[in-house]
Design goal:
Keywords: Membrane, Transmembrane, Transmembrane helix. The structure is a single chain. The chain has one domain. The protein has helices spanning about 5-15, 30-35, 40-60, 70-100, 105-130, 140-155, 165-185, 190-220; strands spanning about 130-135, 190. With about 220 residues, it is mostly helical. Helix 1 (about 5-15) runs antiparallel to helix 5 (about 105-130) and helix 4 (about 70-100) runs antiparallel to helix 5 (about 105-130).
Length: about 220
């Protein structure tokens, strides 16, 4: 079972853009609601980096020739992204328990980690996302169940201000572990986007060949 984009890459980008702003004095009547709707202007910078670098990497990799060796490089890069991203997600979750919601220290560390994630995932992960994928199997069901149970456990012992962050970072961790296992267990395959790109390239080449043949007949 193959999807348009890897789950981990999608969830990681959502996590970087999730509401995460330090608020020194939110309203006491709606602390969780106010905190959950507060964004940081740094996230606009992250979004600009993701778009600009993402387009660049996409143009650099999407039309590479399809050879057996082509998937080795993205697989190695995505392994680094997965390990780095899972580690960042664990640190982010741990800080949600170490620090109170209006913590400038937590916000600063979190923002720095998200900035590094944007650079790593966009530069290294985009190549994989555009050209490769994994075949998801039945393991996706226990992964969803385990992630859901863990999230509800965090909600039970955690703070209401962090409910949305508990969810997104748990999704990053479990989807990353699943993808890492499937990648090294079963290998990677061409993504839908890459297959479509290759079909367009082949059709374009066939059209060029046909035009050349017609031109040669006309000259004769």
């Amino acid at each position: 079972m193959q999807y348009l984009a890897p789950f981990f890459y999608f969830f990681s980008n959502v996590a970087v853009l999730a509401p995460n702003t330090y608020t020194p004095s939110p309203p006491k009547t709606a602390v969780g609601w106010e905190f959950g709707r507060t964004f940081s202007y740094y996230q606009l910078v992250f979004l600009a980096i993701m778009v600009s670098m993402g387009i660049t990497r996409c143009l650099m990799t999407i039309e590479k020739e399809d050879t057996p060796e082509r998937r080795v490089r993205p697989k190695r890069h995505m392994t680094f992204c997965l390990v780095f991203g899972i580690g960042c997600a664990v640190v982010q979750l741990a800080m949600l328990f170490w620090f109170e919601p209006p913590s400038q220290i937590r916000y600063t560390i979190s923002t720095l980690l998200e900035f590094l994630q944007v650079l790593v995932f966009t530069w290294f992960g985009m190549e994989y996302c555009m050209t490769c994928s994994v075949e998801y199997n039945w393991l996706i069901i226990p992964t969803i169940i385990t992630c859901s149970l863990t999230y509800y456990g965090f909600k039970w012992i955690g703070r209401v201000e962090y409910y949305s962050l508990y969810l997104i970072w748990n999704m990053c961790i479990f989807s990353g572990l699943l993808e890492l296992w499937l990648m090294w267990r079963n290998g990677v395959v061409n993504s839908f986007i890459y297959d479509i790109s290759m079909d367009n390239v082949r059709n374009s080449d066939e059209d060029d060949d046909e035009r050349c043949i017609n031109c040669s007949k006309f000259d004769f």
